[in-house]
Every structure is written in C-alpha cells, then in structure tokens.
Task: inverse folding
C-alpha cells in the first residue's frame, strides 16, 4: 500500500524555514527551502507500479521533476530535472512527516545504507536541499507533507 495517494502536496521542513521549491525555471536549477520564490511550492506525487513515486511541479506548462545532479551520492544537490526520477517515500518521525529517499536499487555500493533528501548545516539562505546518508531520526530529513486541493 502506498504511503500517500496520488495528488498535490507541499513539503515543509521540520524547523519551519519554508517549503521545498525549485529556485527558478531553468533546467538544473537548485531545489531549496524557502518561503518566497518565483515558483509555487506545490508538488505532484504519482505512485508508480514498482512502489516508488515520481515527484514534479509544473510551471508554464512544463514539468519540472525533483532530481539530483548526476548519480545519487552523498552531498549531491537536488535540482530541477527534465526527466522523471524515482523516489521512495518512507514514514518520518511521526504520522505527518515523510522521508524522501533514493530507492535502494539506484544506490552505489558505498551508499548501501541509503540516501535521503536533507538540508546541510549551512548559513546560506535559502538553504539548498541535497542528498545525505539516510538517518530518519534527523530533523532535517523529515518533511511535513501537506495535501493541497
């Protein structure tokens, strides 16, 4: 059974800095956590037949997929991708939170314990999202999932 239904959602970080959003509509643009931005912080989630999900937003009729720069690895920045990328949504720290993880079959040998969307410990604003070692108890890997109508 899917963790969430197909639909429209927002991902908010646990510290309430802002929402997961693509910074601008140019391909390869970073995904950041922000309260303000050119693009709306609204994502479509589609459950795939293999148990993973595809996550995207739309801007001016163009689909922009949640992706990472290059192959999944520690510290890979999240970016707007032109092609779908599969993700696992896993239960987070409580029932309203999820962890956005890289499916195990897409991991390299050095990342067998898993990778998840995280926020770096940096002073930059808006903070960029990136991949880090899967650690579901970390606040920065738990995303409040709010369904939008």
Result:
């Amino acid at each position: 059974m899917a963790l969430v239904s197909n639909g429209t959602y927002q991902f908010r970080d646990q510290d309430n800095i802002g929402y997961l959003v693509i910074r601008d509509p140019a391909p390869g643009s970073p995904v950041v956590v922000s309260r303000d931005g050119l693009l709306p912080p609204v994502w479509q989630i589609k459950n795939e037949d293999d148990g993973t999900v595809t996550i995207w937003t739309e801007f001016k009729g163009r689909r922009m997929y949640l992706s990472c720069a290059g192959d999944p690895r520690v510290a890979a920045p999240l970016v707007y991708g032109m092609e779908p990328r599969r993700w696992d949504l896993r239960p987070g720290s409580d029932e309203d939170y999820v962890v956005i993880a890289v499916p195990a079959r897409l991991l390299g040998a050095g990342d067998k314990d898993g990778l998840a969307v995280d926020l770096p410990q940096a002073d930059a604003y808006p903070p960029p999202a990136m991949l880090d070692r899967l650690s579901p108890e970390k606040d920065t890997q738990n995303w409040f999932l709010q369904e939008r109508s």
Observations:
- The chain has a mean pLDDT of 89.
